[in-house]
Amino acid sequence: MNQVDYLRISLIDRCNFRCQYCMPEGSELNYILRQELLTFDELLILLKEVFIPVGFSKFRLTGGEPLLRPGVVDLVREIASMPETEDLAMSTNAFLLADMAQDLYDAGLRRINISLDSLHPETFDKIIGNRGRTRWQQTWEGIQAAYRVGFAPLKLNVVVIPGINEGEVLDLAALTLDRHWHVRFIEFMPIGNAQLFSDRAWVPSEELRQHIRSKWGLIESKVKGNGPADVFQIPGAKGTLGFISQMSECFCDRCNRMRLSADGWLRPCLLNESERIDLKTPLRQGVDTQQLQDKVRRLLSLKPEINFQQRYSGTNEGVYTRTMSQIGG
Ligand code: SAM
Hints:
- With about 325 residues, this protein is of the alpha/beta class.
- Helices cover about 35% and strands about 15% of the residues.
- S-adenosylmethionine (SAM) binds near residues 93, 115, 186, 189 and 324.
């Protein structure tokens, strides 16, 4: 297995979008109470005294929607300035990004992934559950602002859902032709909206590649990420196309990450819910951070076994108890 040195940190489980595949309107989510969120001081203690000493050096801020967490720019500055930080990135829906992009960049953030499931305002609004007002334009402006400010690589994440945005794959791929953007197609997972998943299912990445290949051709990209995406390129394009195929392939051997939820639960595998550990409660009880390091080291040693277990292990008959917004997607 890869070295596990990458921590995805959820700052908040709330989101200003209600994406159908993630946290559909009407599904009751039990939001984490404010006092249960790790404070930034607690988070920084965990990073400096637990995660970095056991070998983590790459961090991603996510959620929910991380830009909703007050003080996020200051947190970025703190993490970016730690000498042990080799990489810091953020995943966002970009709705609030236009006004924050420059501040985030100045604070030291360089890499950003933005969810963009459609180029058509009506489809986009339908997917994100717009609650009566269009959010497409402001999101697009957020993406443009990130590009202008200089975030690189700028990645756009697309969850492909049959019958909803599947028909836009070529248009989305075309964004990479003359921009240094990286569009990544993600197979829809049964986390968040089991009903939609069983109605629509998912599209295998290879099917998307065939579609793109027959229009422009497709070559393996020289630029390889260190994550789960298989990276390709339309010949002559400036950007790349990534395919994250967690449903059609097992890439557990490439897994280099763990996830920390906004309320301090550390999860060793996205698709297997077993063996999560609570770090916040012992931290608040004053347990020595050396002991927390031991807990994390133990989890690191168990991770290969947890990863390679059947993917639904630890779920209740295949139903996940937490959405991506709650886990830290
Ligand atoms: N709010 C941020 C954003 O929009 O990117 C970060 C959180 S969001 C939960 C992180 C990623 O999880 C997004 O790219 C989203 O599309 C993906 N995601 C959520 N639910 C998913 C599902 N059921 N299948 C595949 N991807 C999912």
